[in-house]
Specification:
heterodimer; A: about 150 residues; alpha+beta; Heat Shock Protein 90; 5-stranded antiparallel sheet; 4 helices; globular; B: alpha/beta; 4-stranded mixed sheet
């Protein structure tokens, strides 16, 4: 598996950047000629991961969110979303659908959306150090008339 | 964001553009203010012109369901685009009968 393309992005954990982050990642994927559904799936998953950083990783402060996206020669996209925030105490619980620690109107579906819309989701977290969410998805290599 | 119209006890909130965690609170406060003022029998959320929604939209719908129930009305969610329905289908909202 060789890396065909690679981009890095960092921005402040301000909610106004959620739209910017998902737009930037989806623009990066455009050369793969994804379907509307594939692109929308990735945008939604990225939006969830970035929102988690903004809401949970840096609850009372503004920190930095890092995105690292790669495209492989097998048409796989690997997107790493990282923060240096508070970390997740119990990853298994955090990934349960409808679980949320937020008192605001959060549905608790962030990880459920990521898992449903991507082929693979990995989460590594250390309390007080931060969290890394890695999202992977194969973009179908279909001829244009079959898309 | 949201355009609102009121007719025959139905408050229609025509949502448009992208719904995420940044935008959802602004939509929420506009709809809730109108609901409290007009006390409609039906609050209809129209998703026809929504181009993107993440799970923040699910929270928005669940919250409006609670809000309108407390005011004695009911919620309807209409014209849900296919991709957005994928997000709703993870929420269990489809079992509440509010999604049309």
């Amino acid at each position: 598996m060789n890396i065909q393309n690679h981009m890095k992005l960092s921005f402040l954990s301000r909610s106004v950047n959620e739209a910017f982050a998902r737009a930037a990642v989806s623009s990066f994927l455009l050369p793969l000629d994804p379907t509307v559904t594939e692109l929308s799936d990735v945008r939604t998953a990225v939006s969830e991961a970035v929102t988690n950083c903004i809401v949970h990783a840096y609850p009372d402060t503004t920190g930095v969110v890092y995105i690292d996206a790669k495209i492989t020669d097998t048409n796989k996209v690997i997107i790493r979303i990282r923060d240096s925030g508070v970390g997740i105490e119990n990853i298994k619980q955090a990934m349960e659908p409808l679980f949320t620690t937020s008192s605001d109107e959060r549905a608790g579906l962030g990880f459920a959306v990521m898992q449903s819309f991507m082929d693979r989701v990995r989460v590594r977290s250390q309390k007080g150090k931060g969290t890394v969410v890695t999202l992977e998805k194969f973009i179908d290599k279909l001829p244009d008339d079959k898309k | 964001m949201v355009d609102m119209s009121y007719k025959n006890d139905i408050l229609t909130a025509g949502l448009y553009g992208e719904i995420d965690h940044h935008i959802a609170p602004k939509i929420r406060s506009e709809i809730d203010a109108k609901c409290e003022n007009l006390r409609p029998k039906v609050l209809r959320l129209d998703f026809k012109a929504v181009s993107f929604m993440d799970s923040s939209g699910v929270g928005l719908v669940m919250g409006r369901q609670r809000c309108i129930s407390l005011l004695g009305g009911r919620l309807e969610v209409v014209n849900i685009p296919k991709q957005i329905n994928k997000v709703f289908s993870l929420s269990g909202l489809d079992k509440l009968g509010v999604l049309k």
